[in-house]
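#dry-run=false #mode=assembly
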Amino acid sequence: MRRPVSTQPVLPFETEEKKLPRLIESLAEVCRQHPLEEKVLIAPSRFVGHQIAEALARSGTPWVHLRIESVRSLAHSVAGPSIAREGLTLLSRAQALALIEQASAETLAGSPYFGALAARPGLHRAIQNTFDELRSAGISPQALPESAFGDARKVAELKDVLAAYEAALAKGKFVDRAEVLRRAVHALRDSPRTSDALYLLAGTFELSATEAELVQRASGGHVRALESDGPDGWTENATRASLFRALGEENEIREILRRVLSDGIPLDDVEVLSTDPASYGPILYELASEHEIPCTFGQGIPATFSRPGQAALGYLRWLGRDFESEELREVIAGGLLDLARIFPGEPPGPLPAARELRDAHIGWGRERSLATLDLHIARRAAEVDSARRRSDEDDEDLNARVEWLKERLATARAVRELVARLLSLASEPVDGKVELRAIARSASAFVGGFARIAGDLDAKASSALQGLFGELETLPVTRLSVAEAASRLSDAVRGLHVAADRPRPGHLHFGDYRTGGYGGRSRTFLAGLDSGRHPGSGLQDPVLLDEERQGINAAVHPRELAMRGGRPAENVLALRACIARVRGEVTVSFACWELLEAREQFPAATYLDIFRLVSGDPAADYSDADRGLPPAAGFLTEPPRALDETEWWLSRTQAPPLAGGRVASSVRAAYPWLADGFAAEEARDSQAFTIWDGLIRDPTGLDPRTSGRPTSCSRIQDLARCPYSYYLKRVLQLRSPEDLRADPTVWLTPLERGTLLHEVFRRFYADPTGAVERPLYRRDWNRIESIAGEEIAKWKAKTPPRSVAAFEALREDVLVSCRIFLLREEEHCRDVAPRWFEVGFGPSRESTEPPGDPEPVRIPLGGGQSFLLSGRIDRVDEESPDEYQVWDYKTGSPWDTSEPERGRGGRRIQDALYAEALEILLARAGRPGRVVKSGYFYAGRRGEGERFAAPRDVAATRETLTNLFDLLRAGAFPHTPTEEDCSICDFAKICSGADLAGTRAQNKLSEEAANEVLAPYRRLNPS
Ligand code: SF4
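#status=ok
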């Protein structure tokens, strides 16, 4: 006896009887009734159609002569021959978008309606979607009724863009999707078809009026809609659904994978559907790759997840930001280039190559790139030579050092070759403009010749990217600035998805709920059912509002532009239809917590409806759901369900507590470095001052009183501000990586600006030509302005500004500073005469004539102790023949000197030490004198020409220095307990930061802690 289709055994994979989706049942009936006739199944997409046909086969129904089509493929089959005959080219979405961008650029420049939005990629995409709708409906630019628009400017601008776009299509002999549909319908109107084939619509799905006409005409009027499970029948499956919630989207996907793996469900029996594939797809892709779970992705994977995609974006940023070396450095350091292919033989490693590029200090600019690298190579070569000449190392050390330097030199040369080859790909702008297709060509050559491929996805992405750039190369000439061209191509790369695939054996499948549930898999997970994602907002199309659509529909036939305000209701129906058509178990979930923003998220109304059905309580509200749902899935799970080792270890932390007990000791035994970390944290939390807090065991040579090496005021002030940061910077000699990425609106760093101003001030007094003793603003302004101009020009040649605006802003700032300087100097120099400038003392200080001296000065500390000091005094003024003032130029703000409290504990000691140093230098030079004032002159704009000079207190200075040097002698480098000290520190990331480090430091510095080794610092920083 023949069984009804719905209860036939499902073969070959299942032996149990399983109720089939209504769509498969009705298709099976047609196949049985018309086994040999040609059948054309029209599905929402061919991917979906193939899933339906495969599900039919798995249900045990044999079929032949079943052709799968989508509306698009049907239109192509009808219109394709005429398109080929006429020599037209079919445009991809990316190409069509590029034409719309160009049409917008041509027609919306200075637009009064779209205004500043006219250049935004988001607007171009919205215009593309709206134009698709209009053109699919056969509405030409001229047919747009002005009466439908509240603002006449809007319709005029839309007409212009649409007309320009259509003109570009006609000129380039291009056709887009809408044109293919239009041509297909017209062809069928002109020559109606008679067909014996059975045309079957795979259930109900959205068709525009033109698409419906195409299907009707292609089928000769014999299309039949197959019965399917409609949204009304959703409750049966929903009532049996499982529900969970998770802390963030990643944990939602983790929990799905945990359930699949721990329940031992075959992967090809699982479908994960989402309301937001753009967010959930990449998360699943990352986790599936990490755990080697084979997956297919209905919408594909963003190309930006592949190495070639990331490399292409980095390359385009490099081009668009005027060859900013930091962008290229990131591409190299990220291992995105195939250095082994570029340098067969002995390729440099990505990190050494990236380091050489950074050490070259290119900054940006085509010309600067190679010139600066040449200088860098010359420096590296000189290092090799000078190392060879060194005689204070034994042979083995010397050879090792020379080999190391030679390796760096070879890497620097390889980087130069790489940069030269990349530069040769990039076409030179003419009058500041390039052709979009030229940049596309170079991006394609870059991906094909340089980007690293390390897997299947990379290979697919590389080929898809070259295809994308190849398509854009075929477009008509469009001239843009390099930044605009790079930005357009980057946008196209971001929109590219690769490796889209239908469900495959052995693979879990991920897709969108609208196109999911057709394959008949027995476990379906519906993710992303939070209220933010579903049913979505009823926001209208920004290009054509619903009111305008109604007006167009009323004036133009056929009336078919859809209303966007009804989208949420449509989404609810689509989700219900999806739940109705799936078979087997359904699990619905949502992320109840947004991890990045640390805020709560709520379930969608449909999720609450499902909760009501499952709980049998039709009146349940959100608080009932909150109480009735299991705790949110997070990073912790039960050990048997752990996805990986990390989850397993985390799961073991739930009981007993991590800080003690057997589990903690097992973790520490398994990971000795982790054990060290726990020991360090315990020590830091204690009151004892330990090696984990900055106590070093062998401080030999650190105390300048006994080392015999000169120290400087900046070192002493660093030590006073935070001994721990001094230890990192001055003892371990750590440096934070320099980020050479420049803000295009800023030219010169504060340090560079300060150096420039120092040189202007020095030259104003010290240049023999026109040097003055008693400046007068009126007389001397031209002179200082011209010196400033010369110094600015020197910096401009050395470091070209990124923009005219940045250059002008800096120039203006320098001139204002010069004006303030000169006005204050006129006043100040009524009582004193500027005498010496840049007075260096000590080795490598480019010492001036006396009183400057290449020998350091010895500063006495009392009790027979002293130390050597080197430095450079910006300026010495003569008050009377044996009385002097010492001034240090500051070009920033006076916040640190205007408050005496901020200088305590040696944080500001330079004024006192330079006063003492000058007296020693004067005596050495045979013209003894006394320093009567020593301080800081805030000559820049932010300092407004203020001068600060504190009274000298030699005894207090000596006591401060003795305390600081006692710390060095003991090797004790505590963290500063004062948060303010951390505001200009580079090491916050590695010292646990101001809050925690400061609290711990206060704890260790307290009297009760009795850390004797910290007594000197406690004296300097009484609480
Ligand atoms: S962040 Fe603060 S405590 Fe840490 S090293 Fe820097 S200055 Fe010292």
